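Our consortium's second objective concerns turning raw sequence data into structural hypotheses that experimental partners can test. To show how far this objective has progressed, the report includes one record in full. It was chosen at random from the queue rather than selected for favorable results. The single chain below, 118 residues long, was entered without modification.
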Amino acid sequence: MFLISAKVESFKSINTPQTVLIDDEVTVLVGMNEAGKTVFLKALEKSNDAQGLAKFDPVSDYPRKGLIVCLIASLGGYLGRKHDGSPGPKTMWIGLQRMRDFVIALEAREALAATDTS
């Protein structure tokens, strides 16, 4: 069995699907610093680790920057459809305000729970 191509998506710094064709004579992976060479190889390792030691970790392996922006923007009304552009500053501001409201509500709930148990 030979690896002829690999598709990596939603792994560390790789946010959009990337397909790499593997030539049977290629022995080197070349790219600029921070281009994703190591991330690509780590994704391959974790997808089919012969020793069973490399496991996917949702906290460290999945990309967060774009996800967090979309989650905050969705609180501000951003729908994130394919044809939508990036969320604007007003949408982000409203999303951050809603997030702050959630934090205040959670802190109030925790304070209320602490007074109920004492």
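The partners drew two points from this record. Residues 5-61 form one domain. The first strand starts at residue 5 and ends at 8. Both points have been shared with the crystallography group to help prioritize constructs.
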